Automatic annotation (TrEMBL):
SMART domains: FCD (SM00895), HTH_GNTR (SM00345). This is GntR family transcriptional regulator. Residues 11-78 form the HTH gntR-type domain. The keyword Cytoplasm does not apply. SUPFAM superfamilies: GntR ligand-binding domain-like (SSF48008), Winged helix' DNA-binding domain (SSF46785). Pfam families: FCD (PF07729), GntR (PF00392). InterPro entries: GntR_C, TF_FadR/GntR_C, Tscrpt_reg_HTH_GntR, WH-like_DNA-bd_sf, WH_DNA-bd_sf. The lineage of its organism: Bacteria, Bacillati, Bacillota, Bacilli, Bacillales. Keywords: DNA-binding, Transcription, Transcription regulation. Transmembrane segments: none annotated. GO terms for molecular function: DNA binding; DNA-binding transcription factor activity. The keyword Ribonucleoprotein does not apply. CDD domains: WHTH_GntR.
């Protein structure tokens, strides 16, 4: 019984360290290329090196951390080829989902979408980067939720970590978030009007902005990309 409790506490500690490091990487608090020290992390979280090492191994499996022999462990650079793969995947899935939303959305789903847009506007007024990024994520998640595809969204999240870091960098670099909000508003409007062809076109254009942004970001922050 005691061994089981110790294993549970150990797993809980590891999961907490993993979640904190993962969020720091995705939020760019730990920018691409940042060296990671097991000793420093264990001191920060007040834990032994074992849960830190296990967390770093898990993050390496996700592609967020890179271990280089004789050099050390680093936050992985943003891989532009993986960004494009993720964008391609999201474009095809989300165009299908937004088309489905035009017939599948009920009143509650649409109210949740409109509430999200109201909160996006508030984040823009407050210049709240973290809030805007989370609401951007939530807007797209609500499309999957409202069409009964929540598990698809969950799986997608594991495959878009490089894209999400690039998207967050875009928000940091350009505070003109009104354009992003307006695209979301138009998509919601097309869903309300049950105009599936227009909704798909809007979504495709919305996600394809990442292509142009990618070139600009790579030029401005070459140290963050491969």
């Amino acid at each position: 019984m005691m061994n089981m409790l110790r294993r549970q506490r150990s797993a809980s500690t590891r999961d907490e360290v993993y979640a904190a490091l993962r969020e720091d990487i995705l939020s760019l608090k730990l920018p691409p290329g940042t060296p990671l020290s097991e000793n420093e992390a264990s001191q920060r979280f007040e834990v032994s090196r074992t849960p830190v090492r296990e967390s770093l191994m898990k993050l390496a499996q996700e592609g967020l951390v890179q271990v280089l022999p004789q050099r050390g462990t680093f936050v992985s650079l943003i891989d532009t080829s993986l960004v494009e793969e993720a964008r391609f995947m999201r474009e095809h899935l989300e165009c299908a989902v937004v088309e489905l939303a035009c017939t599948a959305f009920d009143d509650q789903s649409y109210r949740e979408l409109m509430s999200n847009l109201d909160r996006q506007r508030g984040s823009i007024e407050r210049v709240d980067l973290e809030g805007m990024f989370q609401l951007d994520q939530e807007f797209h998640e609500l499309l999957f939720k409202g069409t009964g595809k929540s598990h698809t969204w969950g799986a997608l999240g594991q495959l878009t970590v490089h894209l999400n870091r690039s998207r967050r960098l875009r928000l940091v670099d350009d505070h003109n978030w009104g354009h992003l909000y307006e695209q979301h508003r138009q998509i919601a409007e097309a869903i309300s009007a049950k105009d599936s062809s227009h909704a798909k076109a809007l979504m495709k254009n919305h996600l394809n902005l990442n292509v142009a942004d990618q070139a600009l970001l790579k030029e401005k922050y070459p140290q963050y990309f491969i």
